[in-house]
Write a structure and sequence with these properties.
alpha+beta; 34 helices; seven-stranded antiparallel β-sheet; 818 residues
């Protein structure tokens, strides 16, 4: 060991908390097994949860009314390339391709298009909100307008048009909705103003975060509470979309907006990205960050930084593939200089601990940010071993790939930055085997010239593959540590060192947060202490899939603290070298691809992984890779369930999660029916069958383009309607509960409820709304009424959770003082 290496190891271990004192500080009660479980962080009454959803948007309209084609046609970029093509200075291919993109769109669907409408249609209050959001610094009313403010207006004769992305349209729609009706009760207006702050944006997409945090209790699990809040927020988003379509004259002007869940960057947006430079792509699709930040232009610049960094990073991944021996010839298809992965849409679920948050807020408690970091990093390392349970089981994003797509420099995306070369080569070999890329027994991949690859595919019947969750492959999900800078060794500041190393390598930028599958939410940054799960793509159902996955996430997180506070698992059990890190993460990525097996070195230094493998059946020594164990992915997940059953028995009982465990086992045993991958796949193929007017049950018998565009249509229509219906039924059930009516009997709410329902019962009114949604006959009055009822319900949830939070925080602090 060199002196430098020895110094590094010593410095990374310089903070070693004493376990006995730590347990005393945390108020851990060892008097009985039940008392111990109840006193753990993230136990039943200690956990809080919140969720962040990213949505897909489209505008339906012809190329002369939708903003995206109009903006492209009117842009200097388009005019310049046409002039240069006419003068012979450049090829006519690009302007012709753009013309075809604009003029040949049979469905008239424009993904992530902005909208334009008459400014005079905004209510005075909505106009006030818009003007405030145009300030260069919202915290300073005297700061003047943003330097780019003129970009959000178009002069059409004597009429001024507003031009904004749908992510901001939703906020303006809410401002307009709560101020337009004179009869709106004050509780609706005040609550609506509060909810506006929760409508933000991702790099491209609308980003909505929980209206309130939730906890365990009132006869339901924390997952049920998360699902309830998410359903109401999704339903309100649909109503705001409908309101904007009518009140702002969007539908009348040929721009009908839809918002829904869809994980992948849209196919046509990918095609457009291949035709244009990265700067013009950012001009078309990057959100201006009008909402959510005092200095929106600074945030917009940061979004641009993210896009440039990831575009550069994927180009650098090509060199790594060559170093790894995966690219063996000089003929490659270079990735575009504009990376589109930031147009993906995922769901992030954050769990918080009342106890840890209260201790960190108290500077005299003895629990410090160093403790938080030490325990947080180990929690992440332990949790990563369990993450394959979520992929495809509770969350998925099916994607069809043709043989012509199997260029490693494109299909492997960011994996060269996420996995060690050994595991990367193993995954690539198994992926090619899964996709049956063979001609006369020899494995082949596309050569490059598209017409040759298509010919090979047709002659030899090379179908390609179906990937259960391609979002997790196409997206930069996590960063691999370097030898000199581990990301999760428990030492404060390790993330800063790692980002510096990766920036020097051209992989990342120090100004961006560290990408991880399970990320710590530091109290100093977020105001609470907890963890964020960033591995969710799409759910088929809120109540079935989202709810159970959140329950499982809480169980695993609490189990991590059980392991740590009993000394069963330490940082030494899961070493921090890149190979060991990659060894556990290969299982996660292989699951997303649908690879049935993986390999673990017999001399693995990961003692926790070996502990799990002791519960896994049917492992054997690998014949292909001497010194490795061959493990079935399906058996590994069943082994994880055994570990949860055995080690987490007390937690399962305390948290009331026997139903969740039974549901998990059902999904694993009957994955072809009960997994989210299967449910979404069935829905997509049913639409393929309907379009073809004959049954289709095998996605490999459907060309990739047809499958993927049908999937987008399924998410936009059938799944959206299904989830709206689920949310409405849930709202109806909530109003049927007697305890809710006790609240409504209070004088403060009687007048509000009466003015919303107009002599109808909630049951009859919501039934009428369900029918109107199904038949597309919802009127403006219906939208206003249903929105009012929904906002009132959300207001009561906020009020109830606020009281619960205060009560339980006091209990958590009291327990630690005892």
């Amino acid at each position: 060991m060199t002196a430098k290496t020895q110094q590094k190891k010593i410095s990374h271990q310089e903070f070693q908390p004493d376990l006995v004192n730590l347990c005393r500080t945390l108020g851990i009660d060892f008097s009985s097994p039940q008392a111990f479980i109840k006193s753990l962080p993230f136990s039943a009454h200690d956990s809080t949860a919140g969720i962040e959803n990213e949505l897909q948007t489209v505008v339906k309209g012809d190329s002369h009314t939708a903003d995206l084609p109009c903006f492209i046609r009117e842009s200097n970029y388009f005019k310049n390339i046409i002039k240069r093509a006419k003068s012979g200075d450049n090829d006519k291919t690009i302007p012709n391709s753009l013309r075809n993109y604009i003029d040949k769109n049979p469905g008239n669907i424009w993904e992530n298009s902005w909208v334009r409408f008459k400014k005079s249609l905004l209510s005075p209050y909505a106009n006030h909100i818009f003007n405030r959001d145009l300030l260069s610094d919202k915290s300073n009313p005297e700061s003047g307008r943003r330097s780019d403010a003129d970009q959000y207006f178009i002069q059409d004769g004597d009429e001024t048009l507003v031009r904004i992305p749908v992510s901001y349209l939703l906020k303006l729609s809410l401002a307009d909705l709560i101020s337009r009706e004179k009869e709106n009760h004050s509780v609706i207006k005040v609550t609506g103003e509060t909810l506006m702050h929760h409508f933000l944006n991702d790099n491209t997409s609308p980003e909505l975060f929980s209206f309130h945090t939730v906890g365990h209790g009132h006869g339901r699990s924390i997952g049920d509470a998360v699902a309830s809040e998410a359903m109401k927020r999704y339903l309100l988003t649909q109503l705001l979309t409908l309101h904007a379509n009518t009140a702002f004259g969007l539908t009348d002007s040929g721009q009908t907006v839809f918002t829904y869940f869809s994980a992948h960057p849209p196919i046509r947006q990918k095609q457009l990205n291949e035709m244009i430079p990265d700067a013009f792509y950012r001009e078309l699709f990057m959100s201006p960050c009008l909402s959510g930040w005092d200095k929106g232009e600074d945030k917009k610049s940061y979004m641009g930084l993210c896009h440039r960094v990831l575009s550069r990073s994927q180009l650098n991944a090509v060199a790594k593939l060559k170093e790894a021996g995966i690219i063996t010839r000089n003929l490659v298809v270079l990735p575009n200089t504009s990376n589109i992965s930031l147009a993906n849409n995922g769901t992030h679920v954050s769990l918080g601990s009342r106890k840890l948050s209260a201790l960190l807020a108290d500077k005299t408690s003895g629990y410090t940010p160093d403790h938080e970091k030490y325990l947080g990093d180990l929690t992440i390392k332990i949790t990563e071993h369990f993450l394959p349970l979520f992929v495809n089981t509770y969350s998925a994003a099916p994607y069809r790939m043709d043989f012509t797509d199997f260029h490693p420099e494109q299909i492997l995306a960011f994996l060269p930055h996420e996995l060690d070369y050994t595991h990367l080569r193993m995954i690539w070999r198994r992926w090619k085997k899964k996709a049956r890329l063979k001609i006369m027994g020899k494995t082949v991949t596309p050569w490059g010239p598209h017409f040759i690859d298509k010919l090979l595919s047709r002659i030899f019947g090379l179908k390609g593959d179906v990937v259960p969750d391609f979002r997790l492959i196409d997206y930069f999900a996590c960063l691999m540590s370097t030898d000199e800078s581990p990301a999760l060794d428990g030492h404060t500041g390790n993330d800063v060192r790692l980002k510096k190393d990766l920036a020097d390598m051209g992989v990342f930028d120090t100004r961006m947060p560290l990408y991880l599958l399970y990320r710590m939410r530091k109290h100093a940054d977020m105001g609470f202490s907890g963890f964020e799960g960033r591995y969710y793509s799409m759910f088929d159902s809120f109540g079935d899939d989202l709810a159970q996955s959140v329950n499982l996430q809480m169980l695993i997180t609490a189990l991590c603290f059980q392991y740590m506070l009993t000394g069963e698992v330490t940082h030494n059990d899961i070493p921090d070298d890149p190979f060991t890190e990659s060894e556990r993460r290969q299982i996660f990525f292989g699951t997303a691809i649908g690879i049935p097996t993986f390999y673990i070195h017999t001399d693995s230094t990961n003692l926790f992984l070996k502990r799990i493998l002791a519960s896994v059946k049917n492992t054997r020594k690998s014949r292909r890779y001497p010194g490795y164990i061959r493990v079935s992915n399906r058996e590994y997940m069943k082994g994880l369930v055994r570990v949860l059953r055995n080690d987490g028995e007390g937690l399962i009982q305390e948290l009331g999660l026997e139903k969740t465990m039974s549901d998990l086992e059902k999904r694993l045993d009957g994955a072809h029916v009960h997994s989210v991958e299967a449910k979404l796949g069935k829905g997509i193929l049913s639409n393929v069958s309907r379009n073809r007017k004959r049954p289709v049950t095998n996605p490999l018998k459907v060309p990739a383009a047809e499958f993927n565009t049908t999937a987008e249509a399924y998410y936009r229509d059938d799944l959206r309607r299904k989830q709206i219906h689920e949310a409405l039924v849930h709202l109806k059930e909530e109003f049927a509960r007697m305890e809710l009516w006790v609240t409504f009997r209070e004088t403060a709410y009687q007048e509000t409820l009466s003015s919303i329902l107009r002599n109808e019962t909630p049951d009859a009114f919501i039934d009428r709304m369900i029918e109107a949604f199904q038949e597309d006959t919802l009127t403006g009055s219906d939208i206003t009424q249903l929105s009012g009822l929904l906002i009132l319900s959300i207001h009561l949830d906020i009020k109830k959770n606020s009281l619960d939070k205060t009560r339980k925080t006091q209990l958590a602090v009291a327990s630690t003082e005892c």
